[in-house]
Backbone:
């Protein structure tokens, strides 16, 4: 904060407002995080910089302070603050903002307009010395985001080989297991994978008897978890336990995704001789332990690895897709809950919007995914959250042409900060679902702090990557 509260010697009289704002910003290190974004706002910080430039023009442009830094240079305070903010701090800062003294000079629009005009010229000069954000984004997209077609083809072939081996094994080992045809899915097949072709999903659709099982939305249960579902066993008095193949995976009257995964884990991770299969395919294949889902790691070239998630899937009568992926924060407490998958519908809507207006939503999503993948503090943001943030932005007016990529990317960062501050990101397809419900408070704070600091310099996310 030294750049803010430093020596004001030689500055014009500011009737107290400069000192007041300095006092406020010197305490900003208590709140500069997600809460700081809510209380101070980007505008307040920008006005402070404008104000200092307007009042601190040097009498001698070459005169420097004892520290070696010219007294009129722009302060470098952004991003130097801790990340914690509690409710009392927010309230105290709000009261401080309301009691700031005013200046007759800057209460007039003309004075502020002159200051803004001078700042705009300085910003324009700086902009001419570097590439625009738009150019940086497209350069980043071409150099870091896009995966070569050859690499994608090799990864897809490896995934297909694994799928074929599993299909043959399951049909031979358990011919009576009611399964539909397995298929490969995920961003690798939607042209939405970024940086490296390293992940695929093997969907394993289970067949349930219509009169023996029914689905119940999570918000209608005592657990009240929108976006998750219970699958209940029905008509036990007429069709006793054992009438359905999947009764063996029933826990407390409900089909347990954890038990279903355990059945497949014993088969896929325990019964299949992967070293032998790998030698035939010229791969190195091994189960990943531990893992939230059943995952296989496939080394198909010396320096290339592919992770294949084995995902049991239920497609209910109303078309709802449920996958055996437990709640991230309460796996034990919600072990009977199946996760609703919106991925297919989300991707379809994103592409439909881009086709309607020739938009850059897909490009913006891929850039955002790459930034999160390459910046560890943002690793908790997943593809579904980023996709829904873009879909929500698309509901408001604004151009999504390729020329507007920089504006939309910056708007995406700003909207994510707002959602993190609220602790809620509604699903565009079902607003009851909070896509941030599986983030811890510490993760929300870290994400908000990182994105808030990036608002003043979005290119820093590309450089860090």
Residues:
């Amino acid at each position: 904060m030294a750049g803010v509260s430093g020596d004001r010697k030689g500055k014009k009289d500011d009737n107290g407002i400069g000192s007041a704002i300095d006092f406020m910003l010197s305490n900003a290190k208590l709140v500069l995080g997600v809460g700081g974004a809510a209380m101070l706002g980007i505008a307040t910080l920008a006005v402070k910089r404008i104000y200092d430039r307007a009042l601190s023009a040097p009498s001698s442009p070459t005169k420097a302070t004892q520290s070696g830094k010219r007294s009129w240079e722009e302060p470098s305070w952004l991003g130097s603050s801790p990340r914690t903010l509690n409710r009392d701090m927010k309230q105290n800062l709000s009261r401080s903002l309301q009691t700031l003294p005013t200046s007759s000079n800057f209460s007039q629009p003309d004075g502020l307009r002159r200051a803004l005009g001078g700042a705009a010229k300085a910003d324009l000069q700086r902009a001419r010395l570097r590439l625009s954000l738009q150019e940086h984004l497209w350069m980043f997209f071409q150099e870091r985001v896009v995966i070569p077609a050859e690499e994608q083809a090799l990864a897809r072939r490896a995934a297909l080989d694994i799928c074929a081996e599993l299909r043959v094994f399951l049909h031979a080992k358990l011919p009576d297991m009611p399964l539909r045809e397995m298929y490969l899915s995920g961003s690798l097949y939607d042209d939405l994978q970024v940086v490296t072709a390293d992940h695929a999903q093997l969907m394993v659709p289970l067949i349930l008897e219509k009169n023996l099982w029914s689905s119940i939305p999570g918000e209608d249960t005592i657990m009240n978890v929108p976006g998750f579902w219970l699958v209940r066993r029905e008509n036990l008095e007429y069709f006793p336990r054992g009438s359905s193949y999947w009764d063996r995976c029933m826990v407390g009257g409900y089909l347990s995704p954890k038990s279903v995964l355990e059945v497949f884990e014993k088969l896929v991770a325990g019964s299949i001789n992967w070293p032998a299969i790998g030698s035939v395919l010229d791969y190195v294949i091994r189960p990943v332990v531990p893992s939230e889902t059943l995952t296989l790691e496939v080394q198909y070239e010396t320096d290339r690895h592919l992770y294949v998630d084995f995902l049991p899937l239920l497609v209910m009568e109303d078309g709802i897709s449920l996958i055996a992926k437990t709640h991230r924060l309460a796996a034990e407490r919600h072990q009977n809950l199946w996760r609703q998958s919106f991925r297919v519908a989300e991707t379809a809507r994103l592409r439909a919007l881009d086709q309607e207006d020739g938009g850059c939503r897909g490009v913006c999503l891929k850039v955002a995914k790459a930034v999160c993948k390459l910046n560890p503090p943002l690793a908790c943001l997943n593809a579904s959250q980023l996709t829904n943030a873009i879909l929500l932005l698309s509901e408001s007016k604004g151009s999504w042409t390729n020329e507007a990529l920089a504006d939309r990317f910056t708007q995406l960062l700003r909207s994510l900060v707002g959602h993190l501050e609220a602790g809620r990101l509604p699903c565009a397809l079902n607003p009851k679902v909070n896509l941030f419900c599986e983030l811890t408070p510490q993760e929300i704070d870290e994400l908000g702090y990182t994105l808030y600091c990036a608002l003043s310099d979005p290119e820093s996310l590309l450089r860090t990557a």
The chain is about 45% helix and 10% strand. The radius of gyration is 28 Å.
